[in-house]
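Protein modeling request. Please complete all fields; requests missing the sequence field cannot be processed.
Requester role: graduate student
Desired output: 3D structure, C-alpha cell encoding
Chains: 1
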Amino acid sequence: MRTQEKTAIILANLGTPDSPEPDAVRRYLAEFLSDRRVVEGDGARRLLWKSVLHGIILRFRPRKVAKAYKTIWQDDSPMRMILDRQVTELELALQSHCGNCAPQVFAAMTYGQPGLKDCLQSLQSNGYKRILILPLYPQYSATTTAPIYDQVARFQLAQREVMDIRILKSYYDHPLYIRALANSVRAQWQQDEPAEKLLLSYHGIPQEYADKGDPYPEHCHRTSELLAEELGLADNTWVTTFQSRFGPKQWLTPYTDKTLEKLPKQGVTRLDVVCPAFSADCLETLEEMGEENRELYLKAGGKEYNYIPALNATPDFIDLLKHLVLEQAGDWVGER
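Delivered output (336 residues):
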C-alpha cells in the first residue's frame, strides 16, 4: 500500500512589520515597495523609483506609518495575530473533517515574518511533498497574488526535486465567501438597523495596471454585485469604492475618501462600511477605515459610520477555507 505523502496547507497574507517602530516599518516597506509586482517599471523608470524609494520614501514615511501602527498594535500586529488564529481554526476544522489524514496548516507572509520562502524551506526539510497555498486575497491581482507565484517559482528553481505545490488563484465569487460576507453585514444589522447605504471599499491599484489587463477591478465589482444580490439590496443602496492610493498616479475610482466626503452632501448621513478584499483586519481597515475615514465622513456631515470587521477567524470564513482546501486538494488530504 502506498504511503500517503506529507501534505501541508499554507495560509498566506501580504505582510506586516515586526514592530510598530520606524526601523521595523522601514525594513518592511523596503521589502514590499521593492517588489516589481507592486511598483512596476523597467530601465530609467526603475532607477527613478529606486531613487525616490531610498532617497525620500524610506527616509520620511516610516515615522508616519509607525505612528499609525501604534494606534492598532496589540501584543503583536493584528494581521499576524489573526493569521495565527485562522491557521489554528482551519487545522481544527480539517481534523474534524478528515480525521488522522488531516494536513497541518501553516502561516506565511509575502513580506515580513513568517516569510513564505522560509516556510517552504522548513516544510521541505521536514519531509513535506505536497503543499497547497491559499492566498488570503479573494480577488486576484498581479500586485498581491502574483508575488506568491513568483516566490514559489524562485524557490522551485533552486531545487533538484521540486515539491508538488498548488496555489489557489482567487475565490472572489465563491458562494461560501459571498455568504460569509453577507452574514457579517447581517450581524451588524442585528445590532442596529441597516444604514442608508452600504459602502464596499476595496484596496486600490494604479489604473495603469488595470489598463494592462489586471482583472482585479472586475473581480471586485463582481464580488460587490453578488453580495448586494445575496443581501437583496436595491442598486441605490450600495456603492463600490477603492482606498489606500499611494503616489501621484491615477488609481482605481471612485476613491473611498472622496466618496465619503460627498455622501453627506447627497443626504446619506448613516453609513455601513465593509472591506471585502481584506481577509484580516489590519492597518488599512482598523486605522484607515476605522479611524481616519470615519473622521472624514463625520466632518463632512455624516452622523453614523459603522465599520463592519473583516471576516478574520469567524466560523463562516473558516468553513470557506475548509471547503477551499477540500476542493483544491481533496485528493491529497484523504477526504472521507
